[in-house]
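Reproducibility note. Readers wishing to regenerate the assembly model reported in the main text can use the exact inputs given here. Chain order matters: entities are listed in the order in which they were concatenated for prediction.
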Amino acid sequence: MVTESPRATTASAGELLARAAMLRADAGLMDGCARKLLATAAALSGCAAAPGGTRPALERQAAACTTAADQLRRAARALEVHARAGVGKPGTGPSAARR
Amino acid sequence: MRADGHAPGRSAPDGQDAGELLRRCARDLAEVAEDIRSVSARTGGALRAAPLRASARRHPRTALAARWALLRALTHRHGLGGSATTVPKGVARAFGAGGAVPGRESLAVLVGLASLRLRIAALLVDHPELARDPGMRRLREAVDRGRDPDAVRALRALFRDRGAQRGLSGLAPLLAALLALRALLEEDPGAGRTGRPFAARRGPSAASPDGIGAARLVSVPRSEGAAEPVGLTDQEKQFIATEGSFLGFLRNIEVLSSNGRILVQNVRGPDGVVRYVVQAPGTAPGRPRNDSPPDYVGAWRELFTTDSSCTRSILAALKDYGIPRGADLAFVGHGEGGTALLNLAHDAEFCRSYRVTHVVTVGSPAGTREPADPRTWIAHITNQHDPVPVPDDRNTTPRLDPHPHRYEVAYPGPTREFPLCHMLREYIEHLRTVVPEARERVDEALAAYRGPVVRTRAYQPRDRAHPPEGHPFLTLPTSPSPTTVGPVEVPVRSYDSAVAHLCYPVRADAARGLLPGGTWLTPSRLGRRALAVLSLYEHRCTTIGPYTEIALSVLVDDLWRPRPYDLAVDPLRRADLRRTGRYVLCLAVTSEEARVVAREIWGQPAMRTTAEADLTGRRIDVRSRDLGLAVTGRLGPGVRCPEADWVLYGRRGESTVRTLVRTHGRPRLHPGTGVRLRLGTAAAEPLAGQLRRLGLDTARPLFVLACPQFLAHRSAGALLPR
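Running the prediction on these inputs yields the following structure tokens for the assembly.
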């Protein structure tokens, strides 16, 4: 029979929390990407030499960046919940934790 | 001028240069694409993190929620968009969502595509002449597809198409951007290491997703650089400098650049010490390479590594030359050759064996690395309009901390047109007339090498890992043939050409009237009609450089024993056994070298003109403003036909010149109904007059023999005594 030590569980929960923090940071990065894309679209608005359709494409991509940022934050939250579930009741499942 | 009041190439409304604005925006987008790619990679990493997998057994519900949220973030079509490499295969299969969703591309790729579009637009603002480049045409066809996913798919196909890669390899200013996008497309994960200039500049990026790269990189055959000593022709020997000087070294490179030879020379300096000068040429656009790498764009990336085949070829040449350890060496190179020599100067092991005192490059990217020996004096001379040495950010401002052993000159040359602005001949002229101070400064630095040349040896670089280009069809014995523009290797070989032969039945007496009087040439007849052929060629890569050709010819009988119906029977024979052929009435070509070769070697009445040709698709389009001629139309359904080898006839003095043209492609025979020749009212003689006399200006061709891509070689002309 294999048993897991509480120390190992805490370590893995720590790593998951670190990943969640990274996802939050990435969400911020994606927001920054959205701002950059919008700024680029605005800069190109008066440039006749820019390929046609660039501006709407960049705006679509900026919206996608914002969506991705929201989804990354959601994923970070879900990962945190999972990590805390593991730390709160080491060696027990979520059903046990609810009991 | 466009409807919005702006003309391409002019300033943007806020006064900044349109090209510069587009380049800056392209850079920003490339950075964003790289950021998104790294976010995707990290999200994928979180999804398959070992603690998440391990804890999923203990807490399946929260683990499932977390994994679902991560997978959604990674693959949502309105978010990151997912990609096959960032989603672990097992997870993707389990959740039924993979990266390779048809009709969808990852957000990073789409932003990378937008960046490439801007970069292309910026390049065309500065170099509108590149719009005619066949590689650029294919690239624009791909990226300008209606929907972004379609464009990405077209780009993937383009990267896989070896024929297209040859064209892309000529787009040196865009290669870094192409490599970056290809890395995003995961066509070649290794490309990311050197192909993402922006990521590299911003420090190490996130680790690439698991497992890709290493295995595939190993599977790519490595180049094996080698160099064989070769002799110089008498004509070449006359041009090789006998005294060491900067311009002399550059002229040597120019003389030997036609087939990429490396030159090593011993020079006795003013102090009596013998030193060594290594001179390496670049690759000329539209001319064949010595090797034939399976991936030209990847080969460009490899050029910037110390282990490139070009660098290894130079090492092999130095080894054969027998340079003693510790000897003083100066390197002078142009374009690719300059980059390869810089690689050697960066190699610590090489610099322990030899003392590299000087590296002088002309038209080569300067790079940011320092030489292994801090005493090495490095000079970079670039024309600001030359997009090859400043491909990405045009950072031509002097460094803030000028190194005492570094000399950089970026001057605005009078030549803007690419590839002319990258050619060594132009650089030599500019060093004489535009920036003579740069020449003096380099000559001053090379003072120890300014003396009599005591030994000269040329080397032909070889790459044993790849077959020569065009092998086996174009691996032929060649010999130099003297012309007024220097020796030309015959047979002249074409590595990438397209053609459309428009065949018209014409009145036999009209054709006879155009053949030279007092000769034995008579038009071949089918009944009362003769056959005239208007041939339109787009030669994208040949041993005499790229050019477009428009030729009008008439099929003629055997000079000695003309027989009826030769026209029907003779084409069934092997080309070298044929007695009939096409007499070239008029030939217009777009390069001086092609004109001289046609006149002096093939005896054809060639003239120089300007023309643009697009013969690669179903729609053909050839225009020459100088000639007042346009051939446009759509090729109808066609059938495969045998190789179209030809015998061409020309005249030299009192003799007829017979030239054999062998081709290798997949020609197709189309009805000529969809194709039309148009002559302007001011169409120029002699071609327009001949076309009118034959009645081709009002007729449609009977059929069109077209081939969008083929190899060919044309022998030297054999003189016939009639």
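We highlight two features of this model. The CA atoms of residues 346 and 371 of chain B lie 4 Å apart. Residues 18-219 of chain B form one domain.
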